[in-house]
Amino acid sequence: VLAAVLFDWGTGADYFNGWSGWSCVGGKGSCVSGAWSEALVANLVEIVVIAVWTAGFSLLVFVPLRVAGLLRADDETQEQGMDMKKHSPPKAYAMDIQA
User: Fold this and answer.
1) What pLDDT digit, counting tens, does each position of 16-72 carry?
2) What is the DSSP letter of 1?
3) pLDDT tens digits, one per residue of 13-26
4) Which one of 23, 45, 60, 95 has the largest count of C-beta atoms within 10 Å of its C-beta?
């Protein structure tokens, strides 16, 4: 997301091209000075919003699963190991070398 601003080397350092292609952002034929810093702030806000959105929906899914006790295997399964308890055949890990 930040690359859209940091690598926008169009008209000058203080201008921003964005979706305008090789033309800088502004009115008809004019360039708005300071548009690069506005675009940088907009992209930083976008990163924060995406992080909050992701964290919020992750909490919405994982907190009820944790409260219900569904995020952790039972103690017996953890002692045995998930491979031995759930996956078959166990002979897939047999390393007997026949000479």
Assistant:
1) 777 666 667 676 667 777 778 888 899 999 999 999 999 999 999 999 999 998 988
2) -
3) 777 777 666 667 67
4) 23
CB environment 70-99: b (16+ within 10 A), e (fewer): eeeeeeeeeeeeeeeeeeeeeeeeeeeeee
CB contact at 8 A, 48 and 26: no
Q: Give the C-alpha separation, 39 to 16, whole Å.
A: 7
Q: Tokens at residue 68, please? A: 């219900």
pTM score, two decimals?
0.65
Locus of tokens 């940091």: 6
Q: 91 is written with which tokens?
A: 């002979």
Count the neighbouring beta carbons within 10 Å of the beta carbon of residue 50. 11
Place of tokens 């909490």: 59
Contact call for residues 23 and 68 (beta carbons, < 8 A): no
